[in-house]
Amino acid sequence: MDKYPISIKWSDEDDGYIATIPGIRGLSAFGESRDEALSELKIAANAYFQSLKKAGKPMPVFDKV
Question: How many CA atoms lie less than 13 Å away from 47 in the CB half-sphere?
Fold first, then answer.
């Protein structure tokens, strides 16, 4: 997961942090702290990538900035 860009933003609506990987729609995680949101995102992303692998689908590729 280290090769994917990560965004962590405060959400007033959720009263916590939302972590996402921009470009992967629907993949997000919540945390009361930035570290917790990042940790939860790693869990969600690993499950997502494993499901792609199991289904024989390609991993997302992002341009390096």
Answer: 9
Q: What value does the CA radius of gyration of the chain take, rounded to a whole number of Å? A: 12
Secondary structure of the chain: what % helix, strand, coil (to 5)? 35, 20, 45
The answer to whether residues 43 and 26 touch, using CB atoms and an 8 Å cutoff, is: no
| Residues 9-65: tens digit of each pLDDT | 999 999 999 999 998 999 999 999 999 999 999 999 999 999 999 999 998 887 655
How many Å apart are CA 11 and CA 58, to the nearest integer? 31
d(CA 63, CA 65): 6
